[in-house]
Amino acid sequence: MQYSRSIFQRVMVVVLVLALAPATFVFAAGAPEQEGAAVDFPTRPVTYIVGWSAGGGSDIVSRVLVSEAEKYLGQPITVVNQPGGSGTRSYTEIKNARPDGYTIGNTTGTISTHVFAGNLEFGHEAFVPIITINEDPGAIWVRHDAPWETLNDLVDDLRANPESITIASSNPASITRFGTILLEQVADVKFRIASQAGGESAGPGLVAGGHVDAAQAAPVTAQALYEAGEIRALGVMSDERVPAFPEIPTYKEQGFDVTIGNFRQIIAPKDTPQEIIDILYEAFRQAANSDTYQNFMNESGSTPLDWGPERSREHLIRQDEEFKAILQSIGQYVEQ
Q1: This prediction's pTM
Q2: In the chain, how many domains are there?
């Protein structure tokens, strides 16, 4: 009887200690979630994958944002470039990563286009959107001494001499390529396209070096060479002129009804716990609203955004419909 009472007393002490302890638990990714649970995240560096070459729009924008987000996340964020297939390689890498928040990455509109073009078996449903960070308009660039002063000059030349002008443009199913195709459709012309596997980053340099006649690229990608006077723009594919480049006319102003923007999101693998997504979103939201990032966006001709997971998902669904229609119109849609 003495032994039984001793066991009972010990059990009651343990119960009392647990009852008085703070109701906070730390759980690993994939473990059952406790009510009122807290996540010990991050405790080590986070890997941020960019699916395009260094110097491209996604790379430039991501590096500026990441350098700010580190301040709020409390851990280093390592940017890793994994170009290949206009993002397909990086999307596969992120999708297959452990859903613990330590592997995230950048996406563009190609998260929608690749599945419809038959390049990937999955779309944005394979991920959790963390935040939408910006929108970039497309633009067409030529060498500073090119014979075309306006977009109409270039189009007239192409109509008279089909496929006589070589344009650097990203691989098929990329948003950069869409910009080229849409102009071909509206103007009834045909370029000779030089595909760029690493994204649009190489295009402006190829123009400046005289290797191609023109390039399709966002202002943020071409800005350095433009400001150096080596290249100039014939038009930008936005509804209105870009405030940072007020001298560049829109396609619409010149009679070509072409507008397309490239929205960038940060994504995590599907099944990443919501608590981790919330932590990441808050860090990147603060970074997106920092003076450094806002000033960079304004000076580079980009539109800064800080859409959260829900609004980002809504955008991705709308984007699916838009890009599916474009691929159907050019005969490149693969039936799902």
Answers
A1: 0.83
A2: 2
Looking at 228, 254, 280, the residue that finishes a domain is 254
What is the full DSSP assignment across 66-98? HHHHHHHHSS-EEEEE--SGGGHHHHHHHHTS-
Parent domain of 200: 142-254
C-alpha 150/C-alpha 26 separation (Å) is 61
Dihedral over Cα of 320, 323, 329, 333: its sign: negative
Residue 198 is classified by DSSP as T
The per-type count for the chain, helices as H runs and strands as E runs, is: 11, 11
Which among 85, 121, 89 is positioned nearest to 105, based on CA atoms? 89
CA distances from 25 to 32, 39, 288 (A): 11, 8, 30
> Tokens 């929608």 correspond to what residue?
112
Six-digit token pair at 55? Answer: 């110097």
List, for residues 74-96, the tens digit of each pLDDT value. 999 999 999 988 889 999 999 99
Each residue's pLDDT tens digit, 132-145: 999 999 999 999 99
